[in-house]
Amino acid sequence: MIPVKNSAEILKMRAACEVAATVLYKVIQLVEPGVNTYDLDQAGKRFIHEMGATSACYNYRNGNKVYPGYICLSINEEVVHGIGSLKRVVQDGDVVSVDVVIELDGYIGDNAQTIIVGNVSDEVRFLIEETRKSLDYAISFAKAGGRVGDISYAVQAFIEPRGLSIVRDFVGHGVGRSMHEEPQIPNYGRKGKGDKLKPGMTLAIEPMVNLGTPRIRILPDGWTAVTLDGKPSAHFEHTVLITEEGPEILTLPKK
Ligand code: MF3
Ligand code: CO
């Protein structure tokens, strides 16, 4: 069963998502050549706590592994779930994915972006820009009466004709009281398949796209996913509410 949020829960989702978006925005402002990802993680921790929230990543468990960071910071060939490190220093020409998942008043907001640092090649810029566009395109299918497969298919139909590849080992997901709720939302699939979308559902839609092979492996730290061929990867994510009027992106920073 996909949870449908009532209006009180939606208010809490709005508040949590606004914090997630604001923290992501603030961390991104700090990404520049010379900064290390440990300091970015610590800044993320501070921003989250200043807003009265907690990190949903910190101490997140997957089997016997416990995530030690407050936000996820993944550079270049790192796809997702990179852990802040003093030894990882951002350089001109890098692409840096920042993923912020926070909990406020029992509800979770989840969002991510990949940003370009300084000068990158045209093909890397293409990867980042098209991945961002694929998220916007997929969100346009997050509407009542449609199905989960419409969102999945939208990402695939956008990305694959552009010669880019879709990571299959991680998927988007429902989000609410917990970080991962039903449904799973793969970034590939078939139109008209899967569960029906209803007003009040809150979904984290998150294309992860590679320049080369779609295949990944996990580093010995047990978390960091990297591309098998070492080529760069991009990740964009929003938490979206299905309304009678259409999709509403909840993870936009307040103007
Ligand atoms: N946005 C990621 C996800 O939905 C965040 C993972 S947090 C971590 O899986 F704790 F696993 F790092
Ligand atoms: Co997510």
Detail the topology: elements first, then pairings.
Elements: H1 7-30, H2 37-50, E1 54-55, E2 61-62, E3 65-66, E4 72-75, E5 78-80, E6 95-104, E7 107-116, H3 122-139, H4 148-159, E8 165-166, E9 172-174, E10 181-185, E11 202-205, E12 208-210, E13 216-218, E14 225-227, E15 233-235, E16 238-243, E17 246-249
Antiparallel strand pairs: 1-6, 2-3, 4-6, 5-14, 6-7, 8-12, 9-10, 9-11, 11-16, 12-15, 13-14, 16-17
Helix pairs in contact: 1-2, 3-4
Cobalt (II) ion is lined by residues 110, 173, 204, 206, 237.
Question: Could you give a short account of the major beta sheet?
Answer: 5 strands, antiparallel
Domain unit count:
1
SSE succession: HHEEEEEEEHHEEEEEEEEEE
> Using DSSP, what is the number of strands?
17
Number of helices: 4
The unreliable regions are none
User: Remind me, CATH topology?
Assistant: Creatine Amidinohydrolase
CATH class: Alpha Beta
Q: Which small-molecule species are bound to the chains here? A: 2-amino-4-trifluoromethylsulfanyl-butyric acid, cobalt (II) ion
Mean pLDDT: 98
Identify the CATH architecture: Alpha-Beta Complex
Nearest-angstrom radius of gyration?
17 Å
Identify the strand order in the major beta sheet: 10-9-11-16-17
Taken as a percent bin, the fraction of beta residues is 25-35%
Going by CATH, the homologous superfamily would be Creatinase/methionine aminopeptidase superfamily
